[in-house]
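Assemble and predict.
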Amino acid sequence: MVESSIIAIPESLVPFFPFLRGILGLALIGAIFVGAMGAVWIERKLAGDIQRRYGPIRVGKFGLLQLVADAIKLFTKEDIIPRNADKLLFKNAPIFMMSSVFLMLVAIPVGAVFIDGVEYPLAVTEMDISVLYIEAMSAISIFGIFMMAYGSNNKYSLLGAFRNFARMVGYEVPLGISMIAVVVMTGSLNIVEISQAQGLHWNIFLQPLGAIVFFIALMADMGRLPFDQNESEEELVAGWVTEYSGMRFGLGFFAEYIHMILGSFLVALLFLGGWNVPTFISDHAVLGLIAPTGFLLLKTALVLCTIVMLRWAVPRYRIDQVVDLSWKRLLPLSLINLVWAVGLGLYLGA
Amino acid sequence: MEEFVGSDEMILHLGPQHPMQPGPFRLNLKLKGETVVDADLEIGFIHKGIEKILENRTYLQGITIVDRICYLVALSNEECFVGCVEKLAGIEVPERSQYIRVIMGELTRIQSHLLGMGEFGEFIGFVSMFMYTIKEREEILSLIDMVTGARITHAYLRFGGVREDLPEGFKEKALPVLNSLKKTIDDYEEMFHTDSIYRERTVGVGTLTADSAKALGVSGPALRATGVDFDIRKAEPYLVYNDLDFKVCTETAGDIFARIQVRLNEIRESIYILEQCLDQIPSGPLFPENTPYGRRTPVMRVPAGEVFHRVEDPRGEMGMYMISDGSDKPYRVKVRGPFFPTLQALPPLIIGTTVADVAAISGSMDGCTSEADR
């Protein structure tokens, strides 16, 4: 099963492969924008539910067009660049941020189709070290935040940028180690293979501790509450985006949401069994085409909703507490999980 | 603050316009990284000259002016102003009016505490808290609206009584609201006690000692959270507080957690007071009989003299010193608001903490800059 994605491609399709992947990539970019807008809508609706109010209801059915209205507003707003800003950084940082999340996107399989029982993962690229690559790109997008904040030449933004780095240094370590634990068990750095290898034995059951550490570290990585110290509207006046307006702000904002969606995909792929379905579904002519992708999207949406709801249910940590939490609690836990994963891997492998 | 800034330090001006503030004031912070090494407070951005305006208005007009000292606690400001005039003119307020005033005062306390807690929640990043408490506050405001006809600036109290009687069915409307509020307060308490992030952000942060609180003149929940058992309603009872059963809520820690806990308990006590008032309220006239005082008091002259009257505002001790020269306008009114001293306690508290705690500590004081500047 592990080899199927790489080897079992019909010979006649091979020349079209780069072309197909290109189309998939373009479609994904479009879909992820729609997805990000959907995530914003879900966030507002869930926030409304949690806070005993409606959320958007005025624009379109269920307020669905609210995001379109917001996008029009962002596009037509004046693009203000502060006089003392570092123009090069200020102008290009949102683009940098957006590119880095798209670079993350290319390595993430967003589903799979089964044609005659043969599995074709829907990934733009399939590289052997995709887990490492995704982790690297995720870290680079944080540099985008730093560039935005530093280029603004604003003291609030600067504080936000410092917090961002303090947090990143703390959280990339447990995040990486809990990823490595999964990699060790599977014996592959390829996210497609990790996802396939789980079958119906999801990693969250095999490594519950690792899943929890990964989820918390991912929240910190994405800068979601309780870990949004770089933004902290109340004390730092939105921190890294204080000086931004119009579509430059919009790009940064959307990049954050896309990052969040991709993070949810990672949780679903690494710990929640990816797109794996029982064979009677994948062998089915029609269900095999849609069910695996559908399942993956469903899992991703559940993770996304959890992340979103957590934001409205908890207060924010102070930055020193965040660093404490990372080094004193999450890092030891992730190491314990690594040892556990190695032992379990040896036991299962034997 | 020293002008010298080291190479690893920077000056950050928080305010006068900043999301964490209850009104415009400025905190000049000297930061070393995230740590506040020096802090300096500037106020006066919203000075409205209320005291001077009061000298140029008749006593009746003054009631609408004191509403604007801080609209959140308008009824408590009115109580203080009207109380001064009543002391000077020797007006005896009928018992029914006294009870109505207590009811309105306690409703004001509840809604002010609710808003204060909600805002504080927002300052530590818990935005939902604001949305929760604002709903309960809205129900309390509707009760106040039923009686006074306005949500925030009421001009409801009159010399010797109140403008309107309680409307028909007020008790029947108020009791369910208060009962559901009791449950909600229990929920909030459980939330505060069990949420580990909330505890980490509040326990042991911004600890005010009883001595420094007394030295600075801090009053209200911030003082009671340090363990000082001081409440004007007990220490110098006005209206019918002597006949009512309630206790002064104190905590000993003096930190943010204790201040919020005091507010929660005070809301409970206020509900208890309200229930007693609604049960015991006697029928009778609103204004003293056979006197010129009434709903539309004609131009009244107050006998010459000096008086100081204080009431327990939701934020602390609200006092007014009034001098009358026998004319229809006060000669001088000095307002002693509770937030001015509390604000002075802020800079020493925030030195040594981090920027994030500045928002939390200043939010937990639950002030109103408008009232500090007047």
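Residues 4-349 of chain A form one domain.
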